[in-house]
From TrEMBL:
<feature type="transmembrane region" description="Helical">
    <location>
        <begin position="320"/>
        <end position="350"/>
    </location>
</feature>
<feature type="domain" description="SLC26A/SulP transporter">
    <location>
        <begin position="8"/>
        <end position="375"/>
    </location>
</feature>
<keyword id="KW-0472">Membrane</keyword>
<feature type="transmembrane region" description="Helical">
    <location>
        <begin position="79"/>
        <end position="101"/>
    </location>
</feature>
<keyword id="KW-1133">Transmembrane helix</keyword>
<feature type="transmembrane region" description="Helical">
    <location>
        <begin position="113"/>
        <end position="137"/>
    </location>
</feature>
<keyword id="KW-0812">Transmembrane</keyword>
<feature type="transmembrane region" description="Helical">
    <location>
        <begin position="157"/>
        <end position="180"/>
    </location>
</feature>
<feature type="transmembrane region" description="Helical">
    <location>
        <begin position="192"/>
        <end position="214"/>
    </location>
</feature>
<feature type="transmembrane region" description="Helical">
    <location>
        <begin position="370"/>
        <end position="397"/>
    </location>
</feature>
<dbReference type="Pfam" id="PF00916">
    <property type="entry name" value="Sulfate_transp"/>
</dbReference>
<dbReference type="InterPro" id="IPR001902">
    <property type="entry name" value="SLC26A/SulP_fam"/>
</dbReference>
<dbReference type="InterPro" id="IPR011547">
    <property type="entry name" value="SLC26A/SulP_dom"/>
</dbReference>
<protein>
    <submittedName>
        <fullName>SulP family inorganic anion transporter</fullName>
    </submittedName>
</protein>
<feature type="transmembrane region" description="Helical">
    <location>
        <begin position="234"/>
        <end position="256"/>
    </location>
</feature>
<feature type="transmembrane region" description="Helical">
    <location>
        <begin position="12"/>
        <end position="32"/>
    </location>
</feature>
Amino acid sequence: MLTKFPHLRQDFAASLVVFLVALPLCVGVAVASGVPAELGLVTGIVGGIVTGLMRGSSLQVSGPAAGLTVLVFEAVTEFGLAALGVIVLATGLLQLTMGALKLGRWFRAISVSVVEGMLAGIGLVIIAGQLYAAAGLTAPASGLDKIAGLPRAAVDALGSTGALASLAIGAGTIAVMVLWKRLPKKAQTVPGALAAVALATLASVVLSLPVATVEVKGLLDSIQPPGFDAFGELANLSILGTILAFTLIASAESLFSAAAVDRLHDGPRTEYDKELMAQGAGNTVCGALGALPMTAVIVRSSANVQAGAKTKASRVLHGVWLLLFAALLPSTLALIPIPALAGILIHAGWKLIPFRGLVGLWRAHRGEALILVVTAVGIVAVNMFEGVLIGLALSVIKTAWEASHIKLEVIDKGAGPIQAYLSGNATFLRLPKILDSLEALPQDRPIEVDLSGLHHLDHACRTALENWAERHSAPDTEPVRVTSDTA
């Protein structure tokens, strides 16, 4: 057996670690998304067994992600749980199509600032929303209302014994996760999230705290494939926008995660188009089961690599362990306090915000930092889809602006002709600036314009330069001479 599968021992051990990391996250993401906890496990199972068996990225682990929590919650609130399966199914089919058309690599062309801004905006909304859940309160619908309502929620919580007990469980969960990394390495073989939930559950049971716990329906009862009525929702334009948002965000997050995971190991590199198809296959199955959407998840993926995984067997086995847990021990979910899961999501949301990276980005590339911040603010202030579109639009505008950058250097030695060197990209966007600078040159001196430093000269600029050269010189002065090897 070991001869046929030389890495079985390492993969088996890694799969147990990934299972222990994935279990509380699957449940937490489902509860925060407003769907039955079991559906988070279903998505984790499909991500492990279906997506895990496919080619693409060998060590990357897929499942329900905190990054889609806000979007799923909005979709379930607006269209209902029955429509979620149709949305996820359509997302999977779109991903399969894009992978077949070899569009996977194009997602890597999306500005990193847009993706980081998207994750930061999601993180802010998750933190704000889960603070209410940690206190046992109902969160407002919009991101701005969540943030604006926090002071009032704090006042309400301070006046309620139940809310204070709930907050204590949530705060304790976060504290355990933060402090867990400072323990000896042997203790850290148990993932911090699992330890935090286990301790919170133990404290809740032993002390009989008045906190809400996870509602359990049973695995088979939670799976509700979309009916024919749900497919009728596809005629709704707003649901089509939600499908596009799911597709864009899930694909971008998965492929960016793949690039990050590739930097963590020396094994086979990711085949991006195949990975996109693997994600599409997983989401298609999840949609058919009425479950949550999946993405590749960097936390589980990095845990898989660090635990010593060598092949895709580890992620497949982690899906098997999730399936066995869901089938044999589903009642244990009913013991988990909801504020403990809120604490896990708050911790995950905090890690989505690139505080250190933003400072460095502002110092080096302020334009990119601005795109990141505006994308995040747009997601909080408007919604997920429109916030991402705002970020993409700003990224395109910035790229167009930089692509039209041009520099004019004038050298006047006092005698002989004035030399003007143009370099960069001469496009119609910068035409007024070019002409203003050239027309300011003296008309009673010979002028030589060198265009050899231009990377691009569009038709509008070429025509304008020729017209300027014909009319600029005074009657008794040599005509402007233009030299260029630009096509």
